[in-house]
Design brief:
Strand content: 5-15%
Low-confidence stretches: 1-10
Number of helices: 3
Largest sheet: 2 strands, antiparallel
Shape: extended
Order of helices and strands: HHEEH
Helix content: 10-25%
């Protein structure tokens, strides 16, 4: 495998992207195929060491969904609107 100098390494074009995408951090896969989740994201999602994730491949994307223990999910739907207008044949 050829080592590329940082200035010749592939960098995604970020200039044409909307503002939130320009500010997203870039991570590197280690030789053990590991990545480090940047601190602002860990803090924002309140991630802890040992936390598990559901991993989903969608086209050319990898999506990580943090799994939370059932007791921690208690009440997360509190206040949700339950009155849904339904068509007459759906009652």
């Amino acid at each position: 495998m050829t080592n590329l100098a940082p200035q010749t390494m592939y960098q995604p074009e970020r200039q044409g992207l909307p503002a939130p995408f320009k500010e997203w951090p870039v991570v590197t896969i280690s030789s053990k195929f590991q990545i480090a989740i940047p601190r602002p994201i860990r803090q924002s999602l309140q991630l802890r060491p040992g936390q598990q994730f559901q991993i989903i491949q969608f086209e050319n994307q990898i999506i990580l969904i943090p799994l939370k223990p059932l007791p921690q999910l208690r009440g997360f739907l509190k206040g949700i609107e339950t009155n849904i207008d339904r068509e007459g044949d759906r009652i």
